[in-house]
Amino acid sequence: MVTLQEVQDIVSRHEGGHVSVTAVIEIGNIGFSYTASTRAYDITLASSPTHYLLLTSPLVPDDSDIPSPTSTIALPALSALLSQIVSSTDVPVPKPVAQDFSGQQGRWDFGWLLVLVPGCSQTSGGITNSTSSLASLRSTLSPRQLARIELQLGTYLRALHSVTNDWFGRPAEPAKLKHPAAPFIPFAFSVDNGGVGQETEEDWSRYSWQDTFVLMLEELLAELTGADGHTVLFDLRGELGIDVEELRRYLSRAIGAFLFDDVEVPGIIWVTGNEADVFVSLSPLGNASTESQDSEAGADIAYLLPTFSHTLWGDPLMEAWFIPPGPSQAINEGYFGGEGGRLIVFPRHKTKRVWYTIYLALLVLAEEQRGHETGRVETGGEHRSKVEWAREILPTCVQRLKDAPCY
Predict the structure, then answer these.
(1) What's the CATH code of the domain at 135?
(2) Does 180 map to a domain?
(3) 386 part of a folded domain
(4) I need a surface site. Which of 25, 111, 215, 307 has the fewest CB within 10 A?
(5) DSSP helix/strand/coil, 112
(6) Domain-located, residue 390
(7) What is the pTM of this model?
């Protein structure tokens, strides 16, 4: 937990000493996007419309034997990713404006990233009543307001997916962009790709979505079954009734059918984005747009929280927004520009979506386990409901794979 004085020091480094921080509020209850290693804070400034968020993560000494969570990208990589989104799209994500990951020789015991919220005025109290998460506002929105927001969301998702990369996998730190590293997973499924899991100059598996996805899935399975030395919080077999070896047999069948190899261009995939990450601005009735009914406020997406710690260069179908029965009609229309396209066309696409749901559920459980290991457990209702969702959906998905087509 950061202190008000620490945040004041950070903001003063960027804004100057004339700016006063009056309140710091930790942002929680972000559902799928929860990460045990990262905290986010909303910053209130005195007499200033400028709106900042602060992201922090623990400092890890260079000589530390503790590995960072492999399914979470570090703050330096997140900073580069957000900057790329800001420069390449009109997606309203906060812009990195200052950062420090060194601790300044003991000045801070955490690394931090200060981001500027786009086009958002602020009043006393931080996030105002007129700007709230879609999750908290959904029940109060009219069908017209909700459709407008979801149309915008579909457009923004398409814009994210249109930002492409040369290789698949997790965004790398700027210094590591040339040769993205692959984890060593001795039992991971993979075709012969020139040395995955060996010391090679370049990881060629990153040019195959199938190889990349399978490696990441195996990382999560290793963490949740204790194969990598972690203490197991969830007993996949005894508690959830999941036969991991059976799951791997289904994965072998999918690999043999090249189920995941129809993805050719890596795009930015948010993966965990959900309604808790989308902040909506409600215009006063007197300022509502002509497109809105006179009796209701205008509704637009103000910004997306910078909850991109699980982002991948990968398959658009992997978005949490596309978990069946989603996406909604409005999101789909916004995504395809009203041209009536579909993400799921063939039976194999449904099977891929089952695998992506398994990945997301394992990710939720892994972050919950990491929270217990680090002493930071999210207790909010939204987070708890996602953990329960993961526990319930995993056995269902594994059962569906039994006869799932790979064609």
Answers:
(1) 1.10.510
(2) no
(3) no
(4) 25
(5) strand
(6) no
(7) 0.88
